[in-house]
Specification:
- The protein is 28% helix and 26% strand.
- It is of the alpha/beta class.
- It has one domain: Vaccinia Virus protein VP39 (Rossmann fold, 3-Layer(aba) Sandwich).
- An 8-stranded mixed β-sheet has the order 5-4-3-6-7-9-8-10. Strands 1-2 form a two-stranded antiparallel ribbon.
- Helix 1 packs parallel to helix 2.
- It starts with a strand and ends in a 7-residue tail after the last helix.
Amino acid sequence: MKFFTFKQFRITDNRSAMKVGTDSVILASWVQTANTKTVLDIGCGSGLLSIMLAQRISDANILGVEIDANSAKDCHVNIENAPWNERLKVLHIDIRDYNPKEKFDLIISNPPFFANSLLPPEDARARARHDSELRLDDLLNSVSRLLDREGVFAIVFPYLREEELLSEAKKHSLFPSRVLHTKNKPDAVLKRIFIEFRKQSDAQYEEEIMEIRNKQNVYSDAYKELTKDFYLNF
């Protein structure tokens, strides 16, 4: 079994539909975690977001929900191997069928988001990458009913679908409070948007742009600073 090794834990994604990538690393490093005791990771995959947040938040209980059986198996393995496994849990379930009594302080997701594009041939990878399995409206509806009144919802999404995301979130009474745009290199187009949403509207919010790599095609100082607690070579 192959593992991706971080400073304090390791991840196997051998069976997972989606592999370890910079989107999840940035999202878990970037999201604000103050006053967070309960976390829900929707579409947790191999568990990378959940485990990174367990490292960051020493007293939070973290639940991952994953519809794909093979991804859930990888997540179980990774949780068992993590130093914080007593605070981590994964459920193999459709988030639309999950109805707990409690609400969550933080909900986080790196969701399927390639709508209306050519589906890849592998069924599991298709479900993970495309919103044919979990539509944006379904995701936001789940977030709205499961998020605490004072909680935060953090998501990574394609930059080209930013307007759609903001519009759909507003329909569910979720409003942006913090935004990060990323591009692969200084001369590249914007590729991803990372957004924190809250249930209270705030017309003014923080907005940043980060380049992942510099002109020399090595990781930028900003990216290394953001993720330094996790990567072995930073």
